Amino acid sequence: MNLASSITGTNPAEAVLGGIIGSGPAMSEVFRLTQQVAKSKASVLLLGETGTGKELIAHAIHGLSRRHERPFVRVNCGALSESLLESELFGHVRGAFTGAIDNRTGRFEAAHKGTIFLDEINSTSLHLQVKLLRVLQEREFERVGDTKTASVDTRVIAASNRDLLELASEGSFREDLYYRLNVVPIHLPPLRDRIEDIPELVTHFLNLYNEQNDRYVAHIDPQAIAAMQNYSWPGNVRELQNYIERAVVMALGDEFTLDLLPTVVTSGRGPRVPGSRAMNIEVLAEELVYRGLNGSENSAGNLHSQIVDRVEREVIAQVMLTCSNVQIKAAAKLGINRNTLHKKLKQYGLDSEAK
Questions:
Q1: Options 1.10.8.60, 1.10.10.410, 1.10.20.10, 3.30.2310.40; CATH of 193-266
Q2: How far, in Å, CA of 288 to CA of 304, rounded?
Q3: Cα separation of 145 and 17, whole Å?
Q4: pLDDT tens by residue, 279-322
Q5: What mean pLDDT value characterizes the chain?
Q6: Which CATH number fits domain 4-189: 3.20.20.10, 3.30.300.30, 3.40.50.300, 3.10.180.10?
Q7: How far apart, in Å, are the Cα atoms of 38 and each of 13, 59, 117?
Q8: Do 142 and 183 touch, CB atoms closer than 8 A?
Q9: What gap in Å lies between CA 48 and CA 216, rounded to an integer?
Q10: Alpha-carbon distance 139 to 180, whole Å?
C-alpha cells in the first residue's frame, strides 16, 4: 500500500513519503504537516521519543522542498563533545587547536543551499546554542580559530527527544533559541499511540528482512500481532524493527509465531507507558509490602532497598533497550560512568542481555 497516495496522490510526495509506514490518523497528520511545511523556508522542530522516525521525516521535508537537489547533512549533536561539535558544525582553521593541521569546512557550509538536520539538539551546550542562534538569525558564523565571518544559506531542521521549553525553564536550553527553532513543530507519536499501524509495520519489516536473509516468513500469527499491539514499545519503531529482524532469522518455517517474540513483549509485564512510571512504582511498592507482611520476602524492614533495587533495574533495562544495548550511550543517558553501569548490569543480572 502506498501510504502517501492516500493523503495527497501527488507523485513527489508518493516517492518521498511512501517509505514512511503508517496510515492511521496520528501519522496522517504528520504527513500533512510534512508536506505543508516542506516548500517553505521555515525552520522545523521535530519532537518525539527515541525511535519514532524523526530522521525519516527530516529527510522527507528536504526531499519535498525546493532544496531537494542540494545536500542533506545530518549531525548527531549528542554523539560529540562540545569542542568537537563546534568544529564539526562550523569548521576550523589550521592551528585553531591541537591536531588542527589543515583548514576544515564545517557541516553548515557543506549544507549551503541545502538542509542541515541537527539531531538531539537538546544535548548542545549553552555556549554552542549562542552560535546556533546567530546562524539562524543572521545566517553567518566564524570557523573555530578564525576572525573572518562566513555567510551561509542553509535550512535548519532540529530534533529533540526532550521538551525544550521545559529544559529552557531549567536553564539548560536558551529560550530564544527554542522559539527560533520552534517555527513549525511536528510531533512524532510514540508507537504505543499508533498501534493500528503495527500490522503494516510488521509486514514491511518482514519483507525487508526476508529479502536480506533469503527467507520466506510470510504468515503472521494473529496472537503475535495482538501481543505486539498490547505492548508499550519504549524503544518505538526501532525496537519493533529489531524484534522482527530477530524473528525472521530465528523462524524455523514460514510463519511468524508468538514464540519468536521476546518475553518482555509476550508476558505483558513490560512497562505500559513510560509516563506512568509513578503508577508502576506504587503497584510495585504495594506488592512488596504485601509480600513483606506475609513473610514471602526477607523482612518488611527491607522494603525500601527492595523497591529501589527493583525500580533501578527496570530503569536500566529500559534505557539499555532504547540504546540498543550500547553501554556508552546508556551510561550517558543515565548520568553515570560506564564502569558503574557495568557493575549495575552484573548486579541485576542484565549483563548477559547487554552482551
A1: 1.10.8.60
A2: 9
A3: 41
A4: 344 445 554 554 454 444 444 455 566 667 777 888 888 888 77
A5: 81
A6: 3.40.50.300
A7: 10, 10, 14
A8: no
A9: 34
A10: 13
